[in-house]
Amino acid sequence: MNIAIAGAGYVGLASAVVLAHVGHQVVCVDVDEAKIEQLKKGPCPIHEPALPELMAENLSRLTFTTDYAVAYSNTDAIFIAVGTPEKADGSANLSYVFAVAEQIAASVTCDCVVIVKSTVPIGTNEKIEQHLKSHLKHDVTIEVVSNPEFLSQGTAIRDMLYGSRIVVGTESESARQVMANIYENLEQPVVFTDRRSAEMIKYASNDFLALKISYINEIANLCEVLGANVEDVARGMGMDPRIGDKFLRAGIGYGGSCFPKDTKALHWLGNFHDHELKTVKAAIEVNENQKLRLIKKARKYYDSFEGLIVAVLGLTFKPGTDDLREAPSLVNIPIMLDSGAKVKAFDPCGVEKFKRKVSGNIIYCDTPEETLKDADICFILTEWPEVLELQPVHFLTMKRPIILDGRNCYDPGGMEGYPLVYDSIGRTVVSYLD
Ligand code: UGA
Predict the structure, then answer these.
(1) Which residue of 35, 114, 281, 380 has the lowest C-beta tally within 10 Å?
(2) 152 within ligand 1 shell (Cβ under 6 A)
(3) Which of 251, 270, 288 is the last residue of a domain?
(4) SS3 call for 169
């Protein structure tokens, strides 16, 4: 099939590459000329494991362009995969989605299916269809299908190739057939439903995962008070198939481009319809507090950050990506800097983006070992492999080896006997420092 994809972000690009891989002819469209030029020439502008390799393998079925009029004019299907960032009031900003809809309406010259992959509030697919129909330049039939994505950054290719399900929201038999053809070579269960339910599946899934994380984080904080170990608690809970063992890793809170925005957007939508989602509200509040958990812990060891050297291991919101959106580092490091700390930071991918967002007394180091040297305290914010590989002795080059671990990277038992403090999330503090 001939497919056009609007948006060359990680969702659009991963979708384009995988759909080319399963045999479709795909053109990926973006308004960002520099990005399209880079996609044509390489290297791949998006940090996503396996993406450059799969892209290189499928270049014969993959093209990149800014010329949307040509790309959309004569194709079987057009995916909308542009961002829906958060507005100041928490609602979803749909301006990019509707801008693409306008371009499609102006360009299509034959019947086609428009597939909305962007995460959009319930009811938006209907509005996009109305908008398209009222702006069409040619006498063609357009059907709009909701097809939310469930890709995680860092595993997007694997998630798309071997996903748990494909959700398709449409009431049209012909559109349903087009969707079945697009995905026929991906062996995944397909959930066919109406558009509103498909849109809701996306939000309800992300918000449930966010809730699960905030729940285990609250339990972890209580474990600290009561002397229980949250890792054992999560293991014991997760063995119950009704609960499941995923997304029960306690830590410094969720970040990224999805959970923070999608929890706020659904909460906003509920309120708009006079139906507040109290559990989602609680998940948001717990997460905001959790991001400050290590700052609060630091007060046990120092009255202030004034004059301290703080080693920060990890800047991105999770490993495997250079994405900093809603990363705990963006909250924690400015607090340290504002109260007079000098920060030494390590991140294998996120440094360049971080420099554009935060400035001040920060030294960037190439290795965790270099970062730790002479530091008064260490904050672990992202569980990069380089950080997980560290041994207790590596922390002994710090001036005072006080390790605040926001990602529970190490077994507290392995820290026993070393002259350090190891204070993690939801587990007993190991302290052998005078
Ligand atoms: C998330 C969802 O997992 C995807 O299914 C969804 O498609 C995507 O959002 C989206 O809507 O586009 P992503 O934001 O890439 O994917 O990252 P996750 O792996 O879900 O992690 C999100 C945050 O939760 C990270 O900060 C991570 O550190 C945190 N997390 C995750 C925990 O704190 N504990 C856990 O047990 C799991």
Answers:
(1) 281
(2) yes
(3) 288
(4) strand
